[in-house]
Amino acid sequence: MRKDEEIILALDSTSVPLTAVLKKGGKVYCARRAGIKQEDYLFPLLGRLLAKAGCKLGDVKKFFFLKGPGRFTGIRISITLASLLHEISGVEISSADVFDVLAAEAQKSRGYKKWLAANPRGAAAVVLHAFRDEYFVKIYAGPREPRWLGGDDLPALLKAARRPLYIIGRGRDGAPLQNLLPPCFAYAPARLNKITARALPAFDAPPQSIAKTLEPLYLKPARFELGK
What we know:
The chain is an alpha/beta fold. It is about 30% helix and about 25% strand. The chain has helices spanning about 40-55, 70-90, 100-105, 110-120, 155-160, 200, 210-215, 220-225, and strands at about 5-10, 20-25, 25-35, 60-65, 90-95, 125-130, 135-140, 145-150, 165-170, 185. The strands form two sheets. Strands 3-2-1-4-5 form a five-stranded mixed β-sheet. Strands 8-7-6-9-10 form a five-stranded mixed β-sheet. The radius of gyration is 18 Å and the shape is globular.
């Protein structure tokens, strides 16, 4: 089978809805399911997706999944499926975090490249609503680690980068981040603030060991970091 004909299965179980994508040749098939009981309807969803594409789970040669951050149970679902597919069928597995997939898509866009040309010291930053008034954030400048922090602390953290920032992501219930953050930052258009079905199986994850591939990104809630 030629590389461009390989069947790739991709899964995002970090949030709701559960999203499964299958790439077969040049076609991309997608199935989604709302609700939080993802462990109950994962395999029915995959069955529906495979039937739509006219193939079987045994035909899958590569499996890509998002390893976090997000719902604890959801992340475990993807890791368990990846481990099973690799051990039982020898499927090639790869993973990435939500930050990297969103940042990569935005950085390829014409709008980001134009902004960066005007702001050569600029960097991308991904901000995603986590829980209540708390957010996940990762700044793509220097050795900065991803964080989970309160919304009140978010503007100060971003300003501490001391460089122009291009903000990608979404607030609570999908609200624009412009409603939460100051106007001194540049903001990605709505289409770049969520991961598309085509981006999942197309993401070029860097090679890494099985242990690293299956290592989740949970992050620690801000209330624990602050000793609350």
